[in-house]
Design brief:
The chain is an alpha+beta fold. It folds into two domains: 63 residues, no CATH class; 207 residues, Fumarylacetoacetase-like, C-terminal domain (Fumarylacetoacetate hydrolase, domain 2), CATH 3.90.850.10. Helix content is 14%, strand content 34%. The strands form three sheets. Strands 1, 2, 3, 4, 5, 6, 7, 8, 11, 12, 14 and 17 form a twelve-stranded mixed β-sheet that branches. A five-stranded mixed β-sheet has the order 9-19-18-15-16, with no helix packed on it. The structure holds manganese (II) ion. The site of manganese (II) ion has 8 residues, from strand 6.
């Protein structure tokens, strides 16, 4: 299944995406359903969701929203692709010897086709395509061997980064958390529809130029290692989003940072695509 949040006629609802259409699941899930709750109850809800046939909207006619707007956690791992770690090393950043985790604040989540704002206070804004993992059940001390069972599904994350703000907080929190710097979507593709999350092609273009083009099999710590490591420390909850690292090809090594007017396109095999323009900041 592909589960999305979408808005039409001023109302935001949860739907299932089928090809170029979206079916409103309100009759199944009720008014005011939350994606976190749907994910938590997915095993029980799945038969009704799959069987439901109702009016469908063309995707082109609706606004897609962040699939999980209110995750309890939005975690991300740094320097987790071999070739990306090597390009960072050339820039003087040491390759970490253990998993390097940081928080993106949930307030930076951004709808999959919404503009990304270049802050006036940053001149080094960069893109990072990442496989996003959405946790499906409350879990702690998960073994690598069973880690896949706690995954609800996957989405694309753009871990937009203000490179000049990363050194301003040792935990990266500020440089990773400007408003709009967490595009996520376009929907959640449930785990059963992804044959092997450890081998997905991922591509990011800026203004039509392919900048990142790799596969998730270049990860240093794969997503099961990541879940095992994180749950050594903390309980993961349904709806938590984990951004699992970006491959090589970021703008920083060549100094090609994002500027207003740029257009980013991101694709991951089987998960769909997102597009975002870069706009200048306006303060109200
Ligand atoms: Mn990242």
């Amino acid at each position: 299944m592909k589960l999305a949040r979408f808005t039409t006629s001023g109302r935001t609802r949860i739907g299932k995406v089928i090809d170029e259409h979206i079916v409103d699941l309100t009759p199944v899930l009720g008014e005011d359903a939350s994606m976190r709750r749907v994910i938590a109850d997915l095993d029980a809800l799945r038969p009704a969701i799959e069987a439901f046939q109702g009016p469908a909207y063309a995707l082109a006619d609706v606004r897609l929203e962040v699939p999980v707007p209110d995750p309890q956690k939005f975690l991300a791992i740094g320097l987790n692709y071999q070739k990306h770690a090597e390009e960072a090393k050339l820039a003087g950043i040491a390759i970490p010897t253990s998993q390097l985790w940081f928080n993106k604040q949930a307030s930076c989540l951004n709808a999959p086709f919404d503009p990304v704002v270049k802050p006036d206070d940053s001149d080094k804004m960069d893109y990072e395509i990442e496989l996003g993992v959405v946790i499906g059940r409350r879990c702690r001390h998960v073994a690598r061997e069973t880690a896949r069972s706690v995954i609800a599904g996957y989405l694309i994350v753009n871990d937009v980064s203000a490179r000049d703000w990363l050194p301003k907080s040792p935990t990266f929190t500020l440089g990773k958390s400007f408003d709009t710097h967490g595009p996520a979507g376009p929907w959640i593709t449930t785990d059963d529809e992804v044959p092997d999350p450890l081998d997905l092609g991922m591509r990011l273009w800026v203004n039509g130029e392919l900048r990142q083009n790799d596969r998730t099999n270049d990860m240093i710590y794969d997503i099961y290692d990541q879940i095992a490591h994180l749950t050594t420390v903390m309980t993961l909850m349904p709806g938590d989003i984990i951004a699992t690292g970006t491959p090589s090809g970021i703008g920083a090594p060549t100094g090609r940072f994002l500027v207003p007017g740029d257009l980013m396109r991101l694709e991951i095999d089987g998960l769909g695509a997102m597009e975002a323009s870069v706009v200048a900041e306006t303060r109200s």
